[in-house]
Task: inverse folding
């Protein structure tokens, strides 16, 4: 069955939107700016639609990366995806953003992205299937295990004594490939993996 999909990911500094028809990427718009998720995601979606010469009403589904990622950026992408799904009355599928990278790798691969606070989000994959993670740790505490290459954030991949490979961030093709299309979409749940920096007054008073 042919399926026209809008893809969105804001779990990394790459603000990504794309249009995918089955396995073919019709358009991809990416802005690398960790502080511009809210400003760039909608323009990138509209630009991808225009580049693919696709009307929003033609979309069959939305796929969004649910992290792990920083609280604010991740929330922007997921809220945007949910809004499009609601407005168009089409299903919204959430996937692990690390899976959207790892699914396009071969062999034993470590995938890492920036978690800030001198930490990384990571997961291990074997032939595109996650076998460990996701988790958040300091890079020095992450055991690459049998991994023979590392994908994801180039700056953080460089912390490991392994060859680097693509992708460096979630891509439209990876986001679509990470979906189990045989299942109905589950409710969107963000993978924060740790509590947000902001604390309530009660939490601050208890410290």
Result:
């Amino acid at each position: 069955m042919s399926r026209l999909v809008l893809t969105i990911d804001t779990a990394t500094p790459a603000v990504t939107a794309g249009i995918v028809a089955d396995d073919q990427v019709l358009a991809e718009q990416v802005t690398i700016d960790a502080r511009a998720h809210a400003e760039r995601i909608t323009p990138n979606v509209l630009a991808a639609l225009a580049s693919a010469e696709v009307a929003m009403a033609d979309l069959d589904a939305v796929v969004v990366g649910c992290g792990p990622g920083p609280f604010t950026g991740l929330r922007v992408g997921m809220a945007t995806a949910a809004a499009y799904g609601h407005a168009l009355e089409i299903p919204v599928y959430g996937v692990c953003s690390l899976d959207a990278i790892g699914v396009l790798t071969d062999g034993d691969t470590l995938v890492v992205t920036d978690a800030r606070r001198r930490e990384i989000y990571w997961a291990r994959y074997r032939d595109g299937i996650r076998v460990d993670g996701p988790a958040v740790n300091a890079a020095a505490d992450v055991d690459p295990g049998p991994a023979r290459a590392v994908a994801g954030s180039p700056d953080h991949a460089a912390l490991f004594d392994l060859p680097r490979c693509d992708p460096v961030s979630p891509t439209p093709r990876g986001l679509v490939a990470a979906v189990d299309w045989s299942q109905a979409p589950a409710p969107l749940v963000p993978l924060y993996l740790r509590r947000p920096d902001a604390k309530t007054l009660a939490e601050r008073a208890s410290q």
